[in-house]
Backbone:
């Protein structure tokens, strides 16, 4: 089949699941995996391709599996990260968080990432800054993905399986503690797309409506005793709880509280200094 016709067919089928613009983006990513660049659709639209090679991946996409899991990778900040359903797909908002930390702390020497998932935050900061970075997650399978990413990208991160809700004991203090913990409330499920609900790890996404700041409270308690003097905490947050998260930190003695917006203009980050 000709490249342009096949692309149009993919987009048409994907529109059963996605809006047009997203269907086009996914179709381009799928074709790029097999060596066809977007410019080829214009410069060489009549080139022949073997659609059988792509059929299996297309079938997964039509069943709402995210393109990142279908391809087993995604781009984040400055690198391509391996991903699978054991880890959340890194979001552009989290890239903003990494960028903020990098710019505000160019001389940071010690960083802890709590709930590391794919390792995208920890690895990106380890690469960007001359810092020693630790990264924790409750999930052994997530840590396996994160370790593979660190090896692939070529940075050293000290990974460990720890549950922040169990108040882990650790004798190290840090200049920076960062976390993107579960913050989507159960009541928000009805607003989420099928490709997120059916494929991304529940444990890394959701928190009870009755205690939406559960993880933030434990992280703040840990940071209060494990940040160095003038150390900083950075949190990605649910847009509905920016003020409450800031108040939680203030209650524990943190200062210079800031609520930051993401590229969509939503409250998405809280930072503070010990």
Residues:
């Amino acid at each position: 089949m000709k490249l342009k016709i096949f692309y149009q067919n993919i987009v048409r089928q994907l529109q059963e699941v996605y809006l047009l613009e997203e269907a086009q983006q996914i179709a381009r990513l799928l074709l790029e995996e097999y060596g066809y660049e977007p410019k080829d659709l214009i410069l060489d639209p009549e080139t022949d391709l073997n659609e059988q090679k792509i059929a299996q991946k297309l079938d997964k996409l039509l069943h709402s599996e995210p393109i990142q899991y279908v391809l087993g990778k995604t781009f984040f900040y400055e690198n391509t990260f391996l991903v699978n359903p054991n880890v959340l797909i890194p979001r552009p908002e989290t890239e903003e968080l990494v960028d903020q930390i990098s710019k505000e702390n160019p001389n940071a020497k010690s960083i802890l990432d709590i709930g590391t998932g794919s390792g995208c935050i920890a690895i990106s900061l380890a690469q960007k800054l001359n810092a020693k970075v630790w990264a924790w997650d409750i999930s052994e399978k997530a840590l396996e993905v994160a370790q593979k990413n660190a090896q692939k990208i070529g940075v050293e991160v000290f990974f460990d399986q720890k549950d922040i809700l169990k108040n882990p004991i650790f004798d190290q203090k840090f200049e920076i503690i960062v976390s993107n913990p579960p913050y989507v409330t159960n009541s928000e499920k009805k607003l989420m797309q099928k490709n997120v609900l059916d494929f991304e790890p529940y444990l890394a996404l959701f928190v009870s409506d009755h205690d939406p700041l559960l993880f933030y409270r434990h992280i703040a308690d840990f940071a209060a005793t494990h940040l160095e003097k003038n150390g900083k905490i950075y949190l990605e947050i649910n847009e509905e709880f920016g003020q409450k998260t800031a108040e939680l930190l203030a209650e524990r003695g943190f200062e210079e509280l800031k609520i930051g917006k993401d590229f969509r203009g939503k409250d998405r980050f809280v930072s503070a200094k010990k």
Summary: The chain has a mean pLDDT of 94.
